[in-house]
């Protein structure tokens, strides 16, 4: 995989998903892109927090040992803000049902900045105060029935990362009140319910990772135009259509794979995501025909729409994906001729069209079979081995499918209007 740019899905995702979606490797991969927390800090600083220091303040600013408990046995905190989150943390601790790594053993006493998973910094609104600025529970394998009353009660938190735990429940609408939260990663947990709509109003939020949970229902289209860099929502049970008019998006990394997205792929979506390097729509329930606007994905190195219910011929516009290395349309209901222009893409190393109903294959594409680049097994190409039965192929052809704007299937948007191909790409079978 040669590039780490982005997508309707990133390289990371691509790597992990296409190689079997190993959840445990997710954070490692993310981390390797510089998104992991170092001492509780992201590669950037705490957003509105002073860039300054991301090392544990506890090392230099926490009260010296001996101070936490004064003579009356009461806890003494380095700052009122720490005193006020202490009961919140202790209450959450009492809800934890599994802690195989013994993390919460460290959650005792007043030195919160030295609890495992908690990190302190100067809050944006008071340069001399000390507050819990980030929480990093990644890989702690904690289990708790909810984060309610915890996450939403940490008023100074800027980063909350809780990848790979067994937290469940829904996400409280109260998180909308956290003024500094800009990275929220609750991926690979057991969260359910609808999309956490509270994030919609959170203008400071730039990173939202909720993949590998059990969220259901629709994804509010506004999320695509919010000021997010990263939106990972793959591997949930979202059931929704893809919005057509997305407007302007800031998203550089987007993953939609492995949900239950239904309906057609609107052409407009490719306009919006024309700078994404990976477009992963695999394992959804997308229907309809692939619009010629797919040719606008000039930066794409990976386009994966495998295992959907797409039909129609493949648009010639695929030949505009000059950087593409992997194209996957396996497991759909595509038919007609495989466009020769797509087989001429110079960087193509894996072109997967197996389990469709293609009937015709030209010489350029046949060369790719010999090179081991093109997989077209289980289609309807009469002179090739490992194809569907004649019965299955004629059954399919007996039920004609057509696409809107059939003219557009030979249209190549990256070429001048007069140089587009004139070869018939294979029209819908007609009875
Ligand atoms: C102990 O700490 C509590 C709470 O900060 C305070 O009210 C009390 O005066 C302290 N007692 C002593 C002896 O320092
Ligand atoms: C800022 O924080 C310090 C330390 O907690 C506190 O003593 C001070 O009163 C705070 N200032 C304001 C303006 O809140
Ligand atoms: C969640 O709990 C199950 C059952 O106890 C366990 O097998 C699994 O490893 C846990 N997952 C994480 C991420 O801790
Ligand atoms: C090509 O891509 C398909 C679909 O993503 C995948 O199943 C297959 O393993 C890939 N082949 C190679 C040689 O990488």
Automatic annotation (TrEMBL):
Keywords: Leucine-rich repeat, Repeat, Secreted, Signal. It comes from the Eukaryota. Residues 1-18 form the signal peptide. PANTHER family: LEUCINE-RICH REPEAT EXTENSIN-LIKE PROTEIN 3-RELATED, LEUCINE-RICH REPEAT-CONTAINING N-TERMINAL PLANT-TYPE DOMAIN-CONTAINING PROTEIN. One of its GO terms (cellular component) is extracellular region. This is Leucine-rich repeat family protein. It is found in: Secreted. InterPro entries: Leu-rich_rpt (IPR001611), LRR_dom_sf (IPR032675), LRR_extensin-like_regulator (IPR051582). It comes from Salix dunnii.
